[in-house]
Specification:
Elements lengths: L6 E7 L4 H4 L4 E6 L2 E7 L4 E7 L7 H10 L9 E4 L3 E2 L16 E2 L9 H13 L5 H28 L6 H12 L2 H9 L3
Helix pairs in contact: 3-4, 4-5
Length: about 190
Amino acid sequence: TPQIPDSAWVVPSRYTDPAKEITAGTDIFGEDHGWRFRVKLYHRAGNGYIFDSTQTDPDIPLQRLKQVTEGTRFVEPRLIQWRPGHHETPWQGNVLPLGVAGHFVDPYDAPTFDIHSRSLEDLFQSLHRETYQEARTQYNDATHLVVEERNLRLIFNFGLSKRTGPFWDSRRQLLQDGGYMRELQAIMNGE
């Protein structure tokens, strides 16, 4: 069963030609075993290769990241691993996680500002409820919808790609096996 990416090799690098390389935005590159990013900061670039450690030997993305940062790395790449998921009951007692503190699925989703603003909107909406319990229930329900939306967005973003390779092929299979294509077709047909 295809899993959600749970690992990344990351490494800072210097620019070889800052005037050409420093541009707005983060560069994203599809790779055979996941996806790679390059964040351009003023004084250096941040590079990473995101992959699913249940499907891919970590040495494969490591070698690719080393290849594309050859001669510009400050240090050797570092492996970061996480457990994708979300809190089943985000608002508990007096603790209420907002944004990616409440749910983190894939780094592809991390930089989107709307995750944080959506959490705040959901919180403000829930505070209009009459009781604490009603407010908490409404916030938790809204957070579950956000998590489902994010999961579907990732499934479709990766699963509809025409790229080939183990990562992309497994995402297409997930799209088919999970019945998501039938759901999309029904929506497109107005059903």
